[in-house]
Write a structure and sequence with these properties.
The complex is a heterodimer of chains A (117) and B (110).
Chain A (H helix, E strand, L loop, with lengths): L2 E5 L2 E3 L5 E8 L7 E7 L5 E7 L6 E3 L7 E6 L4 E6 L8 E8 L4 E4 L3 E5 L2
Parallel strand pairs in A: 2-11
Antiparallel strand pairs in A: 1-3, 3-8, 4-5, 4-9, 5-6, 7-8, 9-10, 9-11
Chain B lengths: L8 E4 L5 E6 L11 E6 L6 E4 L13 E6 L2 E6 L8 E8 L5 E3 L3 E5 L1
Parallel strand pairs in B: 1-9
Antiparallel strand pairs in B: 2-6, 3-4, 3-7, 5-6, 7-8, 7-9
The chains are: A mainly beta (117), B mainly beta (110).
């Protein structure tokens, strides 16, 4: 069975940093684009960052460029998202997803990031 | 890229059909056949219900169907059931490796 399990969320002060991880199993991880999607409380969905199967190129929404870094370790079936210079508006549930031809076919359960003083 | 436009709410009685619209532009919905729909129950992760406009993943009931005309995509839920009550989000490829979402529609089963 396909499984995506996120970890690393928590409470952090504005300006702080956090590292989210996603452990993947049940499919050939190195064959797929992977995308982090976030959902602010009571709000809609937003693609935050995406990485190519070989890890060679990454894409970011404008609001996180220069602050967030997505990476992957295909040998360990692991996806990461480093969040720096966090802002209150980054508060959200962050989902690890598998992307297949522009649709997100598998989602993790999500991990909550709360940015507050 | 701007978000896709969805009605904030929709409703129907059990057994009825309801259609949710998703309006974009020729750069996203109208320009590609990469429209997908997601169902999200409260406190849960979204679930893929429709991809590439009208294809259903394995396990999704055929009561769910998708279509597209020009810049507007639609999700139709036929034979409404209580468990269909959820938030529904559309998504589309928008060029330059970008995926955008609609604002979501809360479907209420009366």
């Amino acid at each position: 069975d396909v499984q995506l399990v996120e970890s690393g969320g928590g409470l952090v002060q504005p300006g702080g940093s956090l590292r989210l991880s996603c452990a993947v199993s049940g499919f050939t991880f190195s064959n797929y684009y992977m995308t982090w999607v976030r959902q602010a409380p009571g709000r809609g969905l937003e693609c935050v960052a995406k990485i190519r199967p070989d890890g060679g190129q990454a894409f970011y929404v404008d609001s996180v460029k220069g602050r967030f870094t997505i990476s992957r370790d295909n040998a360990k079936n692991s996806l990461s998202l480093h969040l720096n210079s966090l802002r209150v508006e980054d508060t959200a549930v962050y989902y690890c997803t598998r992307e297949d031809w522009w649709h997100l076919d598998w989602w993790g359960q999500g991990t909550l990031v709360t940015v507050s003083s | 890229q701007s978000a896709l436009t969805q009605p904030p709410s929709a409703s129907g009685s059990p057994g009825q059909s309801v259609t949710i619209s998703c309006t974009g532009t020729s750069s996203d919905v109208g320009g590609h056949n990469y429209v997908s729909w997601y169902q999200q129950h409260p406190g849960k992760a979204p679930k893929l219900m429709i991809f590439e406009v009208n294809k259903r993943p394995s396990g999704v009931p055929d009561r769910f169907s998708g279509s597209k005309s020009a810049n507007t995509a639609s999700l139709t839920v036929s034979g409404l059931q209580a468990e269909d009550e959820a938030d529904y989000y559309c998504s589309s490829y928008a060029g330059r490796d970008t995926l955008i979402f609609g604002g979501g529609t809360k479907l209420t089963v009366l």
